[in-house]
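User: Predict the structure for this protein chain, please.
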Amino acid sequence: MQNPGESTVAADRRPLHEEVAERLRGLITEGHLAPGVRLNERVLCEQIGVSRTPLREAFKVLAAERLIELSPNRGASVVALSRGDVEQLFELMGALEALSGELAAARRTDAEIVEVRALHFEMLAAHARRDLPTYYALNRQIHRAINRCARNAVLTETYDSINSRIQNLRFRSNFNRDKWDAAVREHQRMLEALEAGDSVALRALLEEHLRHKRDAVLEHWPASDGRPAG
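Assistant: Here is the predicted structure, written as structure tokens:
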């Protein structure tokens, strides 16, 4: 007979394929699985320590998120975006971040400000260590926290869907040290606007922040890789 503690642990545990999907998202975000690369099932099974069944289920999850492509003949591969894709995704993401900031500044609670402030100081510590993976994980939590402060479920659903597609690009935008340092200063001003409840300022700051991310990504992007729509 299973004791209550064991039952609770089993109920709280995520399905294995979701854990595998999260691991693959991290590998894609940090560039260990580069855009366009084919995903070798045998190698990934050994690397992650799972069988092919949960790996293939994870592939389906990531394909639905448009992070990987599934082909009957070629198997799975990481999605490779064109320059036009990048411009359009960042344009939309900038608008979503801006709306999140505008609503968040008006609707945030004192407890949420404390949470964002704590994440901010942890992020500053990671930046000081030049620990980009930890910095970026905290950075992402801050942006998600601001979005949740907006208290708009439809906005959050759309935000998560688009944001998941550009995580690798947002991560890469910090490779240039000067741009990384500038992004940290922008985050300081975001925190101040959130604390002050300044919707106009936080909206403008987040929109500008995403423009800078986009520009950092496209700075070394081949001009021949597709033309921006319109």
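Confidence is low (pLDDT under 50) at residues 4-11.
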